[in-house]
Structure formats: structure tokens, C-alpha cells
Amino acid sequence: MISVLQRVREARVDVEGKTVGAIGAGLLVLVCAERGDTEAEADKLLAKLLKLRIFSDDAGKMNKSVQDIGGGLLLVSQFTLAADTTGGNRPSFTQAAAPDEGRRLYDYFVAQARQAHPEVATGQFAADMQVHLVNDGPVTIPLRIAPAAVA
To answer: What are φ and ψ of residue 135, in 5° steps?
Structure first.
């Protein structure tokens, strides 16, 4: 799975002019399931992003996680993270999971996040979304969890 984490002061997702998900301080997480991804990759991604120390402590050092600060998670599906731009000027998205599988893994990821963290908001899968955020820092981190190799 591929994700881009953005440390935010606030973020929200609008669909058709209505807010469908919003958080205060925390992480906006753009998430993409790729072909071959399973629940195992979703679990690893969630564990990593919940523990990643990218929030400042009292000394101004990045020593706190989203859990440590009690921040929110805004999880937004974004298949375009799987873009392959090596073959010309039009991206290919063949590495993105098929829509049904992408939805299944995204829904699983959201359900697991809601079990593990008290504040989880989402976008709307496959919708035309407008994402609004106030990036804090800015701190933006790509995070990829590759499927385990099959022996």
C-alpha cells in the first residue's frame, strides 16, 4: 500500500459541497491499495502511521506520534498514488488495485483504524473530493508498505 501522510493543523473533505470528514490537528492520510496488497499490508501501514513520531515535543523535536498528541486521522482513498509516469506524459494506473479490491482494502483499513484510534474521519471512496488542509510545518511523508515476497 502507498500513502502520503501530511501533518495538519486541520483538514476536511468535501463532496458535492458537503463536508464528509474533518479533523483538527493530526494526520491527513492519502491511501492507495496496489495490486497484490492484502490486509497484512494495511495492518502494517496503520501500525506505522500511528506510531510515526512526526509531531513536536516540548523541545521542538519530532518525538511524538499522532496517538501521543491525541490527534485525528483523516483517511482519504487516492488511487492516483499508484501512478506510473515512466512511459510518456500520461500516467498509467495499472498498479492500482482493481476498484472492488481497492474499496475492500480501504474499508478494511478504515475499520482497523477506528478500532485502534479514537478519532478517525474519512473521505468518500471513488468520489470527486475536494480536500482542504492546513499543512503543519509543512511535514509531508510518503510511506509505502510493499507486499511480502512469496518464496
So the answer is: -70, 130
| pLDDT of 34 above 70 | yes
CATH of the domain at 136: 3.50.80.10
Let me know if 80 is a catalytic residue.
Answer: yes
**Residue 77 carries which side chain, given as an amino acid letter?**
S
Taking alpha carbons only, the member of 99, 63, 108 closest to residue 79 is 99
Active site residue 140: no
The residue annotated as part of the active site, out of 6, 55, 79, 109, is 79
149 in a structural domain: no
**Residue tagged active-site, from 6, 55, 78, 122:** 78
Number of domains comprising the chain: 1
**Burial class of residue 108 in the structure, from the number of CB atoms within 10 Å of its CB (0-12 exposed, 13-18 middle, 19+ buried):** middle
The domain in which residue 39 lies consists of: 2-142
- Over residues 18-30, the pLDDT tens digits come to 999 999 999 999 9
pLDDT in tens, 37-76: 999 999 999 999 999 999 999 999 999 999 999 999 999 9
Catalytic residue, candidates 80, 93, 94, 130: 80
Judge whether 138 lies within some domain: yes
The grid coordinates listed for 145 are 508498505
State yes or no: is 79 an active-site residue. Answer: yes
